[in-house]
Amino acid sequence: MNAGRIAEVLAPLTQLAGNSPRLSASPLVLHDQTGRSVELPRFLLCGPEGGGDRICIGIFAGIHGDEPGGIQAINELVEEIENDPSLVQGYQLFFYPICNPSGFVHRTRCSSSGKDLNREFWTGSLQPEVRALETEIWTHAFHGIITLHSDDTSRGLYGFVDGAVLSGHLLEPALLRAEKFLPRDRRRTIDGFPARRGIIHSRYNGALKSPQGLKQPPFEITFETPQEAPLHLQAEALNAALEAVLTEYRYLVAVAQNI
After folding, report:
1. In angstroms, rounded to a whole number, what is the distance separating the alpha carbons of residues 99 and 45?
2. HEC profile for 147-166?
3. Shortest CA distance to 187 belongs to which of 202, 177, 174, 200?
């Protein structure tokens, strides 16, 4: 695998992690089908203390190797946080910017095994990337899971929601914020699913998410940008959506604690 392209695109994060007291790099080491060791990038960011237990969020991008917008959005978000740590007060964020390293290197949707990894979760998959990420989701018991994608069949923003009831309350303000950069997809059917105002309450089987049966399921949101849009606008839209979710969720948690 050509690690040079991965190192190049993650250079901003790696450089920040080397100088920041808040951000650290801690890649996951996988073994591919040939037995070679492969790193799956992971970065941990701890915001300033917020007066209670930290809110733990997992943010995943690059599960399809030909969708770089989410990777760039994570780079930009972390840089903004470094300039203004109050954006993540009370948060602990786990970033997984390239969940499909072999697909990213070859600019393909699927991994080098030919599998669409976003159809493999919680299916008993033997794919090393999937098994590693499933372990992360189990281990960290995230309060929220956010995945970043782009869609070559859409000309606008939209999203999937699942998990906790409040997921829908987070997606609407996030899409509203992101619309400053790209239009919203307002079709009644998107990607084969019924949709309302760009919000879909269904999910592909095997998509990256938490396992079923949790007593306290996390909120789960998938953002989709139009793949044909300029990359910098996709990244800015996703960045704006992420900031909106972090702001809204912290507010909802504070309100709940005061009820």
Report:
1. 18
2. EEEEECCCCCEEEEEEECCC
3. 200
CA angle (69 as vertex; 4, 76 as ends), nearest 5 = 85
Letter for the amino acid at 59?
I
> Can you say whether residue 251 is alpha, beta or left, with left for phi > 0 and alpha for psi between -120 and 50 degrees?
alpha
- Provide the CB-side half-sphere exposure for 76 (13 A, CA): 19
- For residue 196, the enclosing domain spans 3-258
pTM confidence score: 0.95
Q: Which two tokens stand for residue 58?
A: 């997992």
Q: What separation, in Å, do the N-terminal and C-terminal C-alpha atoms of the chain show?
A: 52
Asked whether 102 and 63 are in contact (CB, 8 A), the reply is no
pLDDT at 257: 64
Dist CA 99 CA 158 (whole Å): 21
Tens digit of each residue's pLDDT (9 = 90 or more) over 187-237 = 999 999 999 999 999 888 999 999 988 888 899 999 999 999 999 999 999
Q: What is the separation of C-alpha 70 from the centre of its chain, rounded to a whole number of angstroms? A: 7
Number of structural domains (the chain) is: 1
Q: What is the CATH number of the domain that holds 74?
A: 3.40.630.10
